[in-house]
Specification:
The protein is 38% helix and 29% strand. The protein is of the alpha/beta class. It has a domain of 76 residues. The radius of gyration is 13 Å and the shape is globular. The termini are far apart. It comes from Streptomyces capoamus. This is Anti-sigma factor antagonist. Belongs to the anti-sigma-factor antagonist family.
């Protein structure tokens, strides 16, 4: 686990953004994820795709941060989709049923296509 979390934001031009996360999302870094991603929502991009391809670890605090982001996105009329989700987080999200609220996608492209209403054969 690390105490640093890096994030880059790419706006998609349709009230959406892809937030690429690098590092571990845990007790120490979850507040950073929550605050920075909420700022993206508040800046007018309530439809978020979190690219988690470079995330090595997510604990329950990180899961809580994701739920908080989902609530913020929905309150702003948006949505939250997760892409390239690490195995451990996939298990946590599917076991708890949260995947019914924030869809999991294999790739960012798949998540963006699903949001746009194009079926790529992935999850909803």
């Amino acid at each position: 686990m690390t105490d640093t979390l890096d994030m880059t934001v790419q706006y998609t031009g349709d009230r959406g953004a892809v937030v690429a996360v690098t590092g571990d999302v845990d007790l120490h870094t979850a507040p950073t994820l929550r605050e920075r991603a909420r700022a993206v929502v508040e800046e007018g991009a309530p439809h978020l795709v979190l690219d988690l391809a470079r995330v090595g670890f997510v604990d329950s605090t990180g899961l809580s941060a994701l739920i908080n982001l989902l609530q913020a996105a929905r309150a702003a009329g948006g949505s939250l989709r997760l892409a390239a989700v690490p195995d451990r987080l996939t298990r946590m999200v599917t076991t708890t049923g949260i995947d019914q609220l924030m869809p999991l996608h294999t790739t960012v492209a798949e998540a963006l296509a699903a949001r746009a209403g194009r079926n790529t054969g992935g999850l909803p």
